[in-house]
Amino acid sequence: MDKKTEEKHCIIVADDDTDDQFMLKEAFSSLNFDREICSVENGEELLDFLNKKGKYNVASLPIPKLILLDLNMPKIDGRQCLRMIKANKEFSKIPIIIFSTSNNPEDISQSYELGANSYIIKPYSYNELVEIIDIIKKYWFSIVKTP
Amino acid sequence: MFVSKYMPVRLHISHKKNFFLLAGFSILIVFVSISLAVYTITNTNQSINYLDRSHDINLRIERIMSLLKDAESGQRGYIATHQFTFLDANRKAHFEIEVAFNKLYKQIEDDTFQHHDLGLLKTQITEKLGLLTEGKRYIDEVNVIDDQLKDLMLKDKYLMDDIKHRINEIERAEQANLTKIRDKTFTNAELSIYIIVLTCGLSLVLLISLLIILNREYHAKLEIEKELMASRSLLEQQVYKLNSSNKELEQFAYVASHDLQEPLRKIISFSEKIEVKLNRYNDEDTSNYLRRLNKSADRMRTLINDLLNYSRATRALDTNEDVHLEMLFKFIVEDLEVAISSKNIKINIGSLKSINGNNTQLRQLFQNLLSNALKFNHSAVPVVNIWGETYTEKDVKQNEWGKGFNLKYDTYYCIFINDNGIGFESEYLNQIFIIFQRLHGRSEYEGTGIGLAICKRIVENHEGFITAESTLGKGATFIVGLPKKI
């Protein structure tokens, strides 16, 4: 019981768009979400975060419980990232939600094929975004059990 | 470029004409040469035969002459010695001369002139032999050489002279005939040689001409093949370029519309946030500006979305899926349920067959058509009728709406979507399928003017057709024809 309270949990938002990151953080905080929201700007940073490499080589790094992953990013893009994470035994159990503007059927089916747990199209309106984040919060952090 | 391409073809055709003419002429010349050769050989053979005949005749006549002389000298010997052995020659002459004459007659059967001479000769020889017999009988009876016997022998001698003379004449005539025939043969042979040399020369010329033509033909063919290859590879290159530029364009439309969405999303989201904050200050003017801003942003969002859909509709997807049309329309009606029930529209779906096509695209196509039918309908009892019919290419063209269509397939399944809405004037038929073309102001009807353009692209992907029939104020019928491939 003691150990659990010591563990810090977080959600990683991987998105090169700082506006989107800002908006997501706003949405989470408006819902009084108590976990940390960690932002990374591309796939490379995300992998560094998971592997605790580079600037993420710090002891106090929180444990990621959910990843919100954008598809189109510089360096290593979301698709490659998804493939690599799902191929890694240690990280494959972390739920990944694709969070993209693309409503292209090919992107959607490819993402699920690669092992994405959900695919959400970024909404136009902030209010819609808040609704979606609320559902994500309820679903992944109260309803379902994750490792 | 195209002129030079077809030049060799024209040349080719004239060559063909010449070729057959020359070939025909060559064959004719060969036939003439052969018949001439046959004629000359036959002629020469005749001459040789004649030569043989003349030689034979001469020999026979000589033989007759010698027999006659033997008989004569035998008779003279008998008169002088009374030895019977001298008469053997006489007996032999009688018999052999008869045989020789029979043979001679047979040889000169066709020569009437010689025949006549030979007849005379035979009479004279018979007479001569008679005289010899008479002389012998006289010496047997009288046994003295007196004047009467001398007269007889003298007469005998004259007759013999006559015979010799006639024989000479016969031989001379034969000789003359022979010379005539030989001359004729020589002339013929000489002429034949000339003609054969001439025909051979002509044949050679023709042969060479034919070879030249064939050679030219061959080179022209090679040239054409080369040009064909060149234009084929050019075509392939162009098709490749077109395909890649189409792909690029498609990619561009997609990326452009996709990337345009990003900033727009921010505008909308942040303006919402501003709206929330602004509510506290109750600033009516700023709120009004913000509302207009949001409306514009919203409209731009619709445009971008439609443009994205349009660019997606240009993609050639698998159009060979089984599409259950009745089911498809059921789904579409479910999707449009809100609009249908708000306007209280009655939708009648008649019998529809299953067809081949792309499910996603056909759903989009009919959804666009049906939502248009709903949108442009203000009648008191709004109705939309949907049904399908199988048409042959001929059937399609017999309809007012199908006139002048350029159809590739034999059979089409036609889906009709008929409404009693506002309709449109038929002169605008071609305009409504063009992207961003609208017949009504935005304040009247919402929309971007892409819906029917998307429909057209989808139908083109399926190698079908789309058209409409309408009278302003009296509703419209949209007709979609999709080909039955095999």
Which key features would you list for this structure?
heterodimer, A: 147 residues, alpha/beta, Rossmann fold, 5-stranded parallel beta sheet, disordered N terminus, B: 486 residues, alpha+beta, 5-stranded mixed beta sheet, two-stranded antiparallel sheet, 10 helices
What does this 3D model show about the protein?
The complex is a heterodimer of chains A (147) and B (486). With 147 residues, chain A is an alpha/beta fold. Chain A has a single domain, classed as 3-Layer(aba) Sandwich (Rossmann fold), CATH 3.40.50. Chain A has six helices and five strands; from the N terminus they run αβαβαβαβαβα. Chain A has a five-stranded parallel sheet, with helices on both faces. In chain A, strand 3 (63-69), helix 4 and strand 4 form a beta-alpha-beta unit. Residues 1-5 of chain A have low confidence and may be disordered. Chain B is α+β, with helices and mostly antiparallel strands and 486 residues long. Chain B has ten helices and seven strands. Chain B has helices at 2-81, 88-107, 112-142, 147-279, 284-313, 325-335, 337-343, 359-375, 393-398, 451-461, and strands at residues 321-324, 346-349, 354-357, 383-392, 411-419, 465-470, 476-483. A five-stranded mixed sheet of chain B has the order 2-4-5-7-6. In chain B, strands 1-3 form a two-stranded antiparallel ribbon. In chain B, helix 5 runs parallel beside helix 10. The radius of gyration of chain B is 60 Å and the shape is rod-shaped. The two termini of chain B are 39 Å apart. Mean pLDDT of chain B is 84; it is low at 1-11.
